[in-house]
Amino acid sequence: MKVKKILVSQPKPSTEKSPYFDIAQKHDVEIVFRPFIKVEGLSAKEFRQQKVNVSDFTAIVFTARTAVDHFFRLCEEMRITIPMTLKYFCTSETIANYLQKYIVYRKRKIFASPTGKLADLLPAMIKHKTENFLLAVSDVNNGADQALLAANKLNVTTAAMYRTVSNDFAPDEAFDYDMLVFFSPQGIESLLKNFPDFKQGDICIAALGPATAQAVKDAGLRLDIEAPTAKAPSMTTAIDLYLSENN
Asked: Residue 42: is its pLDDT beyond 90?
């Protein structure tokens, strides 16, 4: 079946330079940006229930910009003064640069992974292994990041600062897509929560990352597009290839 309308389960890009717009024009398809999930911050009361005292830590690890937002929000709500000496360890340059929204960048000690992977941030963290690290995470996480840091004999405590919840569809909201693009297992969960009688039929499903791909299969759905692969290092490349071969 020819793909005419694609749902990308992410917020609409802030710039018109996004590859998704190139795909829409090249293949004459309509692309709708509509997240299946949304992020909510934990309240100060919920955070305190974890019995984590931010002031006890000398370094913080961020693996997402969302974590940055909610860390500083919680500190403000709880009237916690963040010391100038706090060290920031980020899994990407993008996250590190995002810190400028909240702090004077040049006056702080900030480290970033060159590859976007936590494993490649380890050398910098090991050089500062005497620090007491706080790892900011979602309330749903598999513990792999903390396990990796602990395995390298780093003193790390995990603290949930936000949660991912289903972004429910309204009863009268159209769901007439030929392709659904997912970026997390939670997106698949939200699909089935919103549409418990969902029948895939000819609808193409795309998944980014092995965990999302596995969630598609575990749900008994057909996985049509997977990224990254050797041929398609990004989701947009994978969609472009699929449409070139099938549309």
From this structure: yes
